[in-house]
């Protein structure tokens, strides 16, 4: 299952993390929601492949620990989403389609 590209219409902001929004529902540690707005990562789909961290030319992503999440115990957090230049590499390389980037969604 890929990230819902309409997450901003179908989910509500329930929290803030490192300066970006968290879109629920969140029920830790199993359910973590979507982190970010312009660059959005569905933490419940991310399985810590790491290609997004390796390939992003402007280092938007940083690892965060998510102990006891069923998919993986670290996630790619869009910690620097304001730096995104919309190259779309992360969207292309993520093997599980956990990332959505939309220039019309401002952070
Ligand atoms: Fe980086 Fe993805 Fe933006 S690779 S520049 S966060 S579109
Ligand atoms: Fe996760 Fe996909 Fe990046 S699985 S670490 S969002 S390439
Ligand atoms: Zn986050």
Series of H and E elements: HEEEEHEEHE
Examine the coordinates and then state which fold CATH places here, giving the name of the CATH topology.
Answer: Alpha-Beta Plaits
Query: What would you report as the Rg, rounded to the nearest angstrom?
Result: 12 Å
Q: Which class do the helix and strand fractions yield? A: alpha+beta
Beta strands, count? 7
Low-confidence segments, ≥5 residues, pLDDT <50?
A: none
Number of domains: 1
* CATH architecture grouping: 2-Layer Sandwich
Write out the distinct hetero groups bound to the structure. FE3-S4 cluster, zinc ion
Alpha plus pi helix count: 3
Mean pLDDT metric: 97
Largest sheet: 5 strands, antiparallel
In angstroms, what separates the terminal alpha carbons? 24 Å
Overall form: globular
Keywords:
107 residues; alpha+beta; Alpha-Beta Plaits; five-stranded antiparallel β-sheet; two-stranded antiparallel sheet; 3 helices; 7 strands; binds FE3-S4 cluster; binds zinc ion
Description:
The protein has 107 residues and is α+β, with helices and mostly antiparallel strands. The protein has one domain: Alpha-Beta Plaits (2-Layer Sandwich). 13% of the residues lie in helices and 24% in strands. It contains three helices and seven strands; from the N terminus they run H-E-E-E-E-H-E-E-H-E. The chain has a five-stranded antiparallel beta sheet, with no helix packed on it. Strands 5-6 form a two-stranded antiparallel ribbon. A hairpin with an 8-residue loop joins strand 5 and strand 6. The mean pLDDT is 97. The structure holds FE3-S4 cluster (F3S) (2 copies) and zinc ion.
């Amino acid at each position: 299952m890929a990230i819902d590209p309409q997450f901003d219409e179908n989910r509500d902001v329930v929290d803030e993390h490192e300066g970006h929004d968290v879109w629920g529902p969140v029920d830790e540690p199993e359910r973590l929601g979507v982190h970010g707005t312009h660059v959005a990562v569905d933490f419940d789909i991310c399985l810590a492949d790491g290609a997004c961290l390796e390939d992003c030319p402007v280092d938007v992503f940083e690892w965060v620990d998510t102990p006891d999440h069923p998919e993986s115990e670290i996630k790619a957090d869009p910690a620097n989403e304001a730096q995104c230049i919309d190259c779309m590499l992360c969207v292309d390389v993520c093997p599980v389609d956990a990332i959505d980037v939309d220039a019309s969604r401002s952070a």
